[in-house]
């Protein structure tokens, strides 16, 4: 409810309260959003693929090495061994820069984490 006789001080206090409530709502929303687990397919595609047999693992490793040499080897020397989680982060960042397909990412990640 607005009063026609509201003083400028009261108007400022009302505006400050509204801004405070809006800011608190935005902060709470961003905290909830940041705490929520990712549910998009981008992160799911960066999980280290699992081979069901040794022949499949060998084939994936060979294809991964070929894709690494074709996509990454242009700028990078032979790969170092990193933990799979760290390698997934590296590949995620390079995927954007090098425009690597999802299949290439999956095979390179398998190769790099073996």
List the helices and strands and how they pair.
Blueprint: H1 8-35, H2 41-45, H3 54-72, H4 84-98, H5 102-112
Short description:
The chain contains five helices and no strands. It is mostly helical.
Structure description:
With 114 residues, this protein is mainly α. It folds into 2 domains: 8-36; 46-112, no CATH class. Helix content is 68%, strand content 0%. It is built from 5 helices and no strands. The protein has helices at 8-35, 41-45, 54-72, 84-98, 102-112. Helix 4 packs antiparallel against helix 5 (102-112). The radius of gyration is 25 Å and the shape is rod-shaped. The termini are far apart. Residues 39-45 have low confidence and may be disordered.
List keywords for this structure.
single chain; 114 residues; mainly alpha; 2 domains; 0% strand
């Amino acid at each position: 409810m607005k009063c026609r006789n509201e003083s400028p001080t009261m108007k400022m206090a009302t505006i400050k309260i509204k801004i405070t409530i809006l800011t608190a709502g935005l902060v709470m929303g961003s905290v909830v959003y940041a705490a929520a687990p990712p549910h998009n397919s981008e992160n799911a595609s960066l999980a280290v693929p699992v081979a069901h047999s040794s022949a499949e693992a060998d084939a994936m490793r060979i294809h991964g090495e070929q894709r690494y040499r074709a996509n990454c080897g242009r700028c990078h020397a032979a790969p170092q061994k990193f933990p799979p989680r760290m390698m997934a982060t590296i590949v995620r960042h390079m995927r954007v820069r090098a425009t690597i397909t999802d299949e290439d990412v999956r095979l390179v990640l398998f190769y790099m984490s073996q």
